[in-house]
Amino acid sequence: MNIYGDYGNIICLRKRLQWRGLDCEVAEVEAGEALPKNFDMIFIGGGQDRGQIRVAEDLQHKKHQLVEAVEDGLPALAICGGYQLFGDYFLSSDYGQLPGIGVFPVVTKATQTRMIGNVVLQSQAFGTLVGFENHSGATELYDNARPLGKVNKGYGNDPTKKFEGVIYNNGIGTYLHGSFLPKNPQVADHLLQIAATRRSNDLELSPLDDSLAKKAALIAQKRPQ
After folding, report:
1. Averaged over 124-151, what is the pLDDT?
2. Which of 152, 142, 136, 149 is nearest to 221 (CA)?
3. What pLDDT does residue 73 have?
4. How does DSSP classify residue 203?
5. Strands (E), 9-162
6. Coil vs helix vs strand at 12
7. How confident is the model at residue 61 (pLDDT cuts 50, 70, 90)?
8. Are strands 89-92 and 106-123 parallel, antiparallel or unpaired?
9. Which residues does the annotation mark as catalytic?
10. How are the residues of the chain apportioned to helix, strand and coil, as percentages rounded to the nearest 5?
11. What pLDDT shows up at residue 126?
C-alpha cells in the first residue's frame, strides 16, 4: 500500500545508503506474489479501508514469514493501514473485521473521528519526531507494547491516550505518513544500521550532514495542527 507519499520512505532509505557509497535492492511485492527468500528490512505503507481488504487477505499467506522475521529482529516499518494490519485486527466501520497478522501487540477499531494534521511527539528512543497523520482508526496497545512516543501535538494512536505508534523488537508501527523518514532521519539510520549489522557485524554507517533535515523538522514543529 502506498498513499500520502509513503513510498518516499523507500527513496529516503536508498538515498541514505547511496550517500554512504552503498546500494540496496528494493523488491516490490504485490498481492499474490511471494516474499523474497532473503530480505533485510520490511516496509508497508498505508491504504484506504477498501484497499486493505485485499491486502489483509494476502498478508495471511505471508503471516508466518513476516512474524518470524520480526521476532528474529529484522527491522520493519509499517505505516497507517500497514500498521493496523500488522496488529491483531482492524475493525472497519464499512468492511467489518479485517484480520491482521499479529506482528505488533495492538488492535485497531474504526471511530467516527477523522484524525488529521501535523504531529509532534517525544520518543524515548528517537527524541522529537514530526509527521503528518490522516486516519480514523484508533489503535490500542496491549500491556506489553511500547509506544513510539508521547504526543505533544496531534492525535496519535488514540486521542484519549496521547501516545503514538508502537515499537516491537526492531519493528516500528506509526500513523505518521509520507515523509516520515526524510523528516526524521535518525529513525531511518536506526533501521538501516540494524539491517547493516545483521548483514555484516563490522558494517558501521558513517554519519551524514542532516542539518537541513533538522531545520525542516524545527519548522514543522511550529506548524498548526
Report:
1. 95
2. 152
3. 97
4. -
5. 42-44, 76-79, 89-92, 96-99, 106-123, 127-141, 149-153
6. helix
7. very high
8. parallel
9. 80, 177
10. 30, 30, 40
11. 97
